[in-house]
């Protein structure tokens, strides 16, 4: 029998019960895949992160991510939560930790200020799939409960990724965004066809003056009907915006703020920073706050 320390963290917020909740097991050594999946299912967050000691000289630790139904390669909000829990539990100073994930070893920066922390996550390699053909586009639009006239014609409907792919769907209106009622069965069926589980619907029609984007993310195929605030949607979105010249920037970098989770009553915010080379996206980083909701232990 071993006692495992478990945190419940709300990421991308400093207000409890807002933002995106994630479980974190900070001392996961000894847990097997079945047990990690069982813990993730019991906590019932969209993702739970499990932190292990380093397994090589090239990393400061290993981190794995489970939804209630499946392991996923990387997760934005659970990374913010995991690094926040680690910083709190070890009373860390500002530092960079190189953590091994299923998409490689990534640097995560912990900033300490006034006895609290902000976390910056460097995401994985940027990639884009070709825009979908008209038939698939129409199926996605219909499954989301949208009409063709709702779509922002400047925004191709395609898959973008920085380690965990999402379909990007730009629409014209915040009102339409908050009125969405997707057909989860149809979205799940489409996921099998297109090889992507997440659908990120976003708009430039943001209601907060300091935000560029409002968004909502749906991934019913992996047990997440809607995710409150999604690092692995907004990171790829930043690369997508640069790639398609949808924003004005200085050719070297672009930073913007997003709001997500409003419809769910879990509003959260994150900053997205895109580094550019020859006016194309080269690297993406997301930054967010976090807050501890509770800390407990599980003996297995």
Automatic annotation (TrEMBL):
GO cellular component: cytoplasm
Active site residues according to the UniProt entry: 47
UniProt cross-references to Gene3D superfamilies, sorted A to Z: Diaminopimelate Epimerase, Chain A, domain 1
Presence of the UniProt keyword Isomerase in the record: yes
Keyword Isomerase part of the UniProt annotation: yes
Keyword annotations: Isomerase
Gene Ontology molecular function, alphabetical: isomerase activity
InterPro entries assigned: Phenazine_PhzF-like (IPR003719)
Classification via Pfam families: PhzC-PhzF (PF02567)
Family: Belongs to the PhzF family.
Xref: PANTHER family: BIOSYNTHESIS PROTEIN, PUTATIVE-RELATED (PTHR13774:SF39), PHENAZINE BIOSYNTHESIS PROTEIN (PTHR13774)
Record protein name field: PhzF family isomerase
Organism: Aquimarina atlantica
């Amino acid at each position: 029998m071993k006692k495992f320390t478990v945190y419940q963290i709300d990421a991308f917020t400093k207000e409890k019960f807002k933002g995106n909740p994630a479980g974190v097991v900070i001392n996961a050594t000894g847990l097997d895949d079945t047990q990690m999946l069982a813990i993730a299912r019991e906590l019932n967050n969209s993702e739970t992160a499990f932190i292990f000691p380093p397994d090589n000289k090239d990393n400061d630790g290993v981190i794995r991510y489970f939804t209630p139904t499946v392991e996923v390669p990387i997760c934005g909000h659970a990374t913010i939560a995991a690094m926040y829990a680690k910083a709190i539990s070890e009373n860390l100073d500002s530092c960079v930790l190189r953590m091994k994930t299923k998409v490689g070893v990534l640097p995560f920066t912990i900033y300490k200020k006034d006895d609290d922390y902000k976390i910056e996550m460097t995401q994985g390699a940027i990639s884009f799939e070709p825009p979908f053909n008209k038939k698939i586009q129409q199926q996605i639009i219909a499954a989301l409960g949208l009409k063709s006239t709702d779509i922002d014609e400047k925004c191709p409907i395609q898959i973008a990724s920085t380690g965990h792919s999402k379909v990007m769907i730009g629409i014209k209106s915040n009102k339409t965004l908050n009125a969405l009622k997707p057909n989860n069965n149809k979205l799940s069926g489409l996921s099998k066809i297109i090889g992507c589980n997440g659908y990120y619907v976003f708009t430039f029609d943001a209601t907060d003056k300091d935000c560029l984007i409002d968004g909502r993310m749906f991934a019913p195929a992996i047990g997440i009907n809607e995710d409150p605030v999604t690092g692995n949607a907004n990171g790829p979105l930043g690369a997508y915006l640069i790639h398609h010249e949808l924003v004005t920037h200085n050719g070297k970098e672009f930073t913007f703020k997003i709001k997500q989770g409003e419809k769910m009553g879990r509003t959260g915010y994150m900053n997205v920073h895109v580094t550019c080379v020859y006016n194309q996206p080269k690297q993406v980083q997301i930054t967010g706050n976090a807050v501890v909701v509770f800390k407990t232990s599980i003996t297995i």
